[in-house]
Specification:
The complex is a heterodimer of chains A (89) and B (405).
Chain A (H helix, E strand, L loop, with lengths): L2 E4 L3 E4 L4 E5 L13 H9 L7 E7 L7 E7 L5 E2 L2 H7 L1
Antiparallel strand pairs in A: 1-2, 3-4, 4-5, 5-6
Chain B lengths: L20 E7 L3 H14 L4 E4 L8 H4 L3 E2 L6 H21 L10 E5 L2 H16 L5 E3 L1 H7 L15 E5 L3 E2 L2 H14 L3 E3 L4 E7 L2 E7 L2 E10 L5 H6 L8 E12 L7 E4 L4 E5 L4 E8 L11 H14 L8 E11 L6 E4 L5 E5 L9 H14 L13 H4 L14
Parallel strand pairs in B: 1-2, 1-11, 2-8, 4-13, 11-18
Antiparallel strand pairs in B: 3-7, 4-6, 5-6, 9-10, 10-11, 12-15, 12-16, 13-14, 14-15, 17-18
The chains are: A alpha+beta (89), B alpha/beta (405).
Bound molecules: flavin-adenine dinucleotide and zinc ion.
Chain lengths: 89, 405
């Protein structure tokens, strides 16, 4: 069981969360300029690193907020995410 | 202990030091890598082949899966490749002259909701049109086949019927790997363990070999059969693949009297179970949601699948859990494999089998070997190329294929 630190609620058990995959994906600013290969890349291709991964979680059974976390995909260890810390102020 | 009189048992494959180059290098000695090497040698006369393995032979998902083989998939492309594999399974023990406990004890996929019933009947019809043995069973017929299953209407998720494929079943995964390794070794294939591929040798857009923990090895063609680690390898070439690696767990009970002689799967309550000849109940469910390479997952997955199993099979309540484990599976966006040429000449891809590639082992090997030997997709692999994500011609088995194992 992962123990996940919600930036608002503190450490909670994994079953309270939904996983959101890779963080910082942005919808193309001008989709019409994308060709099929670029569109496929946006839709289907994600980073899949063995090591640190910046990812999204939603605390669905708590505050229901999305946040960004950093986790090592080999050890499942979390580390503080500077951008998230800044967002909380 | 007395020493055996006729000396040590002969190893099934020889320990090799790698040659400087091979005609074909296969990365990964799971079932798919071993089967590919075997078919290259046995059916295409390409014997100057090495299979490179970072750990020990078949110590990845091949040693960790729950052994289910079946071909009752909805989509035509899937029916094509999985039924091809099932036919190969039916002759594999004879072809390799090695027992692997291929047991066609049948697989049931339970339906618990009106939607399940509609989807299941549709899949049975599609299977029959594709010449695959597949039947719809009523609740009473299910109860006759699996007496220990609770088929009462009071269940939170009552059994409204099931699809049934009699030719489906299980096979002993270790024996399959050893049989393929033994056969490939006899044909001259080098099986090299403790040899991690760390990158590729390139000449422009052509792959001409690999870098390994045992030094560089040249190759005319390189085939990737690295399952969960495929995207890590591809990223050394800057090749981004539509794959995500997730933990997938399974578990076994202590040894019990025989109580179940078929395989029962349920998508809705999400558990599946079979009982192997030794007596262990083998149970599995779905992936852990998060990306991971740790070969372990989280315990709530185990808890959920056990509560589902106990709801369906009340007599399991007193069984003891013996052991749980995890593998790392590579999931593609449409839950179908990728068998493909790549933007790099001489580099071939067999990946994305996710939670369900064991059943495909001989089929994947035969099709991938043929693809490598002829430098074009085997006819059954044509729908499975990387390009489908660009064209949008997905093979969408998500939700259609019953539980995806
Ligand atoms: C718990 C579990 C249950 C499953 N149940 C079923 C089931 O019931 N039915 C079914 O059909 N499928 C099932 N599967 C899926 C099935 O096991 C896989 O789809 C299939 O094994 C993948 O092919 P493979 O055997 O070649 O993979 P693997 O055995 O994982 O082979 C890949 C090999 O590549 C090696 N490798 C990786 N990177 C490198 C490198 N850089 N250099 C050298 N070697 C490398 C690995 O060490 C590994 O040995 C299950 C999987 C799991 C984990
Ligand atoms: Zn919260």
């Amino acid at each position: 069981m992962l123990l996940i630190a919600c930036p608002w609620c503190g450490p909670r058990e994994e079953v309270e969360f939904r996983y959101g995959g890779q963080a910082h994906l942005h919808h193309p600013t001008d989709p019409w300029t994308l060709d099929d290969a670029q569109w496929a890349e946006y839709l289907f291709t994600r980073d899949n690193p063995e090591g640190w991964f910046t990812e999204r979680w939603c605390h669905i059974h708590g505050c229901r907020q999305w946040f960004v976390a950093e986790r090592d995909t080999r050890t499942y260890e979390f580390r503080p995410n500077p951008a998230e810390e800044a967002r909380r102020g | 202990m007395t020493a055996p009189t006729d000396g040590e048992p002969r190893p099934l494959w020889r320990r090799r030091t790698p040659n400087a180059r091979y005609d074909v290098v296969i990365v990964g000695s799971g079932g798919h890598g071993l089967a590919t090497a075997y078919y290259l040698a046995a059916h295409h006369g390409i014997t100057n082949v090495a299979v490179l393995e970072r750990g020990w032979l078949a110590g990845g998902n091949m040693a960790r899966n729950t052994c289910i083989i079946r071909s009752n998939y909805l989509v035509d492309a899937s029916a094509g490749i999985y039924e091809h594999a099932l036919r190969l399974w039916e002759g594999l023990e004879d072809e390799l002259d090695y027992p692997m406990q291929v047991s066609q004890r049948g697989v049931l996929n339970l339906a618990h909701t009106t939607h399940d019933v509609r989807e299941s009947v549709r899949r049975v019809n599609a299977n029959q049109l594709n010449g695959i043995d597949s039947h719809w069973l009523t609740t009473d017929e299910v109860a006759k086949l699996v007496p220990i299953l609770d088929t009462s209407a009071e269940l939170r998720h009552p059994v409204l019927g099931a699809t049934y494929q009699p030719r489906a079943g299980i096979a002993r995964h270790d024996h399959v790997a050893w049989a393929l390794a033994h056969a490939a070794d006899r044909l001259g294939v080098h099986l090299i363990e403790d040899c991690e591929v760390t990158g590729f040798q390139r000449d422009g857009d052509r792959v001409i070999g690999v870098h390994t923990s045992q030094g560089p090895i040249g190759a005319d063609r390189v085939g990737l059969c690295a399952a969960g680690h495929t995207s890590v390898l591809a990223s050394t070439l800057g090749l981004r693949l539509p794959l995500q690696s997730h933990p997938l767990q399974a578990l076994v009970s202590e040894l019990l009297e025989p109580v179940l002689d078929t395989v029962v799967m349920s998508n809705t309550v999400h558990v599946y179970v079979s009982q192997v000849d030794k007596g262990e109940l083998v149970l599995g469910a779905g992936i852990d949601a998060y990306n991971g390479y740790g070969q372990r997952g989280s315990f709530p997955i185990i808890g959920n699948q056990i509560s589902a199993a106990v709801a369906l099979f009340p007599i399991f309540a007193r069984a003891h859990l013996l052991r749980t484990w995890g593998g790392i599976v590579d999931i593609s966006p449409d839950a179908s494999p990728i068998i493909s040429l790549t933007p790099f000449q001489g580099l071939y891809l067999n990946a994305g089998w996710g939670t369900g590639g064991f059943k495909a082992t001989p089929g994947a090997g035969a099709v991938f070997a043929d693809t490598i030997a002829h430098d074009r997709p085997h006819p059954l692999a044509v729908p499975y190329t990387l390009d489908r994500f660009r064209t949008g011609a997905l093979i969408d088995e998500h939700g259609a294929a019953a539980v995806a194992h």
